[in-house]
Design goal:
- By secondary structure, the protein is an alpha/beta fold.
- The protein folds into 2 domains: about 170 residues, Rossmann fold (3-Layer(aba) Sandwich); about 200 residues, Dehydroquinate synthase-like - alpha domain (Dehydroquinate synthase-like, alpha domain, Up-down Bundle), CATH 1.20.1090.
- The chain contains 15 helices and 8 strands.
- The strands form 2 sheets. The chain has a 6-stranded parallel beta sheet, with helices on both faces. The chain has a two-stranded antiparallel ribbon with strand order 6-7.
- Helix 4 packs across helix 5, helix 11 packs antiparallel against helix 13 and helix 12 crosses helix 13.
- The longest helix is centred in the middle third of the chain and has 22 residues.
- The mean pLDDT is about 95.
């Protein structure tokens, strides 16, 4: 157990019709004018945006809209949002959507007080020193950005997709109504299941000491998500299952499943390169693709942990730790495939010729090592993992 500090200040307002409380909540915090950030017109067409804006108007809170945030969000939209926020003199940012919308809102909030290129935060050239407050109305269970301190943005000009971490970007509140996720397309729901699991599994595979409670949190959360995900696959309007997925999305990425451990994601940086290189790849689908390939490559380094994961998630019984570990990886791949997620590069429109570019993006042209301690990967390791997916 290493020394640590833990903060999770976001107020969760959970349940049916909770989006209608946004005006009351914002007013209680003293906010006067919001920049509402969202993606497609779906939230207009289904009436969600109207309900949100009516709630704000009832409490005398002004607002201005920033629409058009795409999956794998880009810095150009952040710059547009900062300009609008300054012009309209807003005092908080309200994200209505999922991870891409929330991360765009976070980047706008910290860049509001910064005169340089917002992507400088993601390149680790600058650290945020101040932020507008951020509120969230969550519409998809996936990224966990609603409670996290991370913000991932992409620069289309360079193909670089990278995140930064700062407690300044933890939202002040997150409104979570599971009914808002009923209409989420299955491919996005499935990708969200994988992404939620990976936020906990990445932390689980960080080095642990004995009696590591966070490891138990991580595995139990994943098992809950797998069971709820199967229920939603059968019935998209299963409220209890959707509620379980939404809550797990939040708790998987607020730091709870990694308490007292070093922090060093491995699969996520590889996926960020993949979806940065090919933006039409859904992030959750990308991590589902890469995790089993990574797991096979590092299996011998962490047989005990893979075996334990296999016991907890798949009820694997075997006399051999190695056999449990091998079966765990196979079962994980099978589970993701059963959700309709990709299992090879060809499934996402990539082939062997794309590997050098992907390796370069992950490793910073061979200058960067990803992961931590015994799990760290160099460019040659990353190349082998990607090659196994062809």
């Amino acid at each position: 157990m290493i020394d640590f500090e833990f903060v999770s200040p976001t107020k969760i307002v959970f349940g049916k019709k909770t989006e209608e409380k946004v005006g009351e909540l914002a007013a209680s915090l003293g906010y006067k004018k919001a920049l509402i950030v969202f993606g497609s017109n779906r939230i207009k067409n289904d009436g969600l945006l109207g309900r949100v804006e009516e709630s704000l108007q009832e409490k005398g809170i002004g607002f201005v809209e920033l629409s058009g945030v795409r999956p794998n969000p880009v810095v150009s939209k952040v710059i547009e949002g900062v300009e609008l926020a300054k012009k309209e003199k807003v005092d908080f940012v309200l994200a209505v959507g999922g991870g891409s919308v929330i991360d765009t809102a976070k980047s706008i909030a910290v860049s509001f007080f910064y005169e340089g290129n917002p992507f400088g935060f993601n390149l680790k050239k600058q650290k945020p020193c101040k932020s507008l407050p951020i509120g969230v109305i969550l519409t998809i269970a996936s990224a966990g950005s609603e409670l996290s301190n991370s913000c991932v943005i992409q620069d289309d000009e360079t193909g670089v997709k990278q995140g930064f971490n700062s407690d300044l970007v933890r939202p002040v509140f997150a409104i979570e109504n599971p009914e808002l996720t009923f209409s989420t397309p299955w491919n996005q729901t499935a990708a969200g299941i994988a992404d939620t699991m990976m936020h906990s599994l990445e932390r689980y595979f960080d080095p642990s000491g004995p009696y590591q409670l966070s490891d138990d949190f991580a595995l139990d959360l994943c098992r809950n998500v797998m069971e709820a995900g199967k229920a939603v696959q059968k019935d998209p309007n299963d409220y209890e299952a959707r509620a379980a997925l939404m809550l797990a999305s939040s708790l998987s990425h607020n730091g709870l499943t990694g308490l007292g451990k070093p922090f060093g994601f491995v699969v996520h940086p590889m996926e960020h390169a993949l979806s940065g290189y090919k933006p039409d790849v859904i992030h959750g689908a990308g991590v589902a693709l890469i995790f089993p390939a990574w797991a096979e490559y590092v299996l011998e380094r962490d047989e005990e942990k893979f075996a334990r994961m296999g016991e907890r998630l798949f009820n694997i019984v075997s006399t051999s730790t190695k056999e449990k570990a091998i079966m765990c990886v196979a079962k994980t791949r099978e589970f993701f495939a059963s959700l309709g997620l990709p299992t090879s590069f060809s499934d996402v429109g990539l082939n062997k010729s794309d590997i050098p570019s992907l390796v370069s993006l992950v490793s910073g042209n061979g200058t960067r090592v990803i992961g931590c301690c015994h799990q760290s990967l160099r460019a040659e390791d990353i190349e082998k993992i990607f090659s196994s997916l062809c």
